[in-house]
Amino acid sequence: MSFMKAHRLFQVSLLLAATLVLGGCGFHLRENATLPSRMQRVHLAVNGGGEFERHLARALQTSGATIEDASGPGIAELRVPVAAFSTETLSAGGYVRVTEYAVHYQVQFDVLGADGQLLVPQQRIDMSRNYSYDAGNTVGNASQVEEIQRSLNDDMVQAILFRLQAAGQHELVAPASAASVH
User: How far is CA 55 from CA 9, 78, 111, 119, 156, in A?
Assistant: First the structure.
């Protein structure tokens, strides 16, 4: 067998082994969230709007919801009164120079179902990321904070979708358990 054929066989074997390892460890692509049935049509009421609201609307649409411009009968409402970033100093170096910060992100939300009943009670999600501050590179620091905020926005949208999906699964379980009690 020539060197090229042996090399090619090794590459194919390595690819096959990697595929088996990924399949065996439970790796799978993230699926869309399954929203509660009372959230097929949703109005978003996000304090401050902006990038977070756009990402949340896009994620809800991807999960099968129709985003409505106004609330009304038969329309669920996802209310986000708080979506705020804050920064905290974590450590300081010599001559009281800040060397490390934390970016915190807090979101509070609740959901009224299409029937006007509280579907998801008030929830609070807190996330944070730490970063090193370089006093000699203020432009790089600003872009680093912006990237951290974008990342936290994406993670926050996913966390909200996971909570909505859990509410939908609870919605399916609750009628079955109530029916067995009678």
Answer: 45, 14, 17, 21, 10
Q: What is the pTM of this model?
A: 0.72
- DSSP assignment of 86-123, as one string? EEEEEEE-GGG-EEEEEEEEEEEEEEE-TTSSEEEEEE
Q: Residues 6-17: pLDDT tens digits?
A: 778 888 887 777
Residue 13 lies in a domain: no
Domains in the chain, number: 1
- Is residue 102 a contact partner of residue 129, using CB atoms and an 8 Å limit? yes
Identify whether 81 is part of a domain.
yes
CB-based contact 166:174 (threshold 8 Å): no
**Measured distance CA(53)–CA(44) in Å, rounded:** 8
Q: Residue 36: what pLDDT? A: 81
**DSSP-derived 3-state class of residue 114:** coil
Domain around 96: 30-166
CATH code for the domain of 70:
3.30.160.150
